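Priority: medium. Attachment 1 of 2:
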């Protein structure tokens, strides 16, 4: 059984992890912008397409980090309310 103070510590998001993720969001967005800027003067369509794909991947990574931060720091009432009750063993 957990003491109340132990439960509070366990329920608090890891602040260092959240700060790391925020820095990664900035890095991924910078990469996406830089790669996209670099494609402006490229004439080779396959190379341009690959680089645009890398830019889109970095944008996706930033969005995934943001989603992870949201999951670590907020409780969704909608998710909790929509979960079916646990099944009882026969």
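Attachment 2 of 2:
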């Amino acid at each position: 059984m957990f003491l109340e103070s132990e439960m509070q510590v366990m329920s608090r998001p890891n602040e260092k992890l959240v700060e790391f993720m925020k820095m990664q969001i900035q890095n991924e967005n910078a990469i996406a912008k830089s790669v996209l800027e670099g494609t402006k003067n490229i004439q080779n369509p396959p190379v341009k397409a690959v680089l645009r794909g890398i830019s889109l991947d970095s944008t996706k990574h930033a969005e995934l980090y943001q989603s992870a931060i949201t999951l670590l720091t907020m409780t969704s009432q909608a998710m909790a309310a929509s979960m079916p009750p646990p099944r009882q063993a026969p």
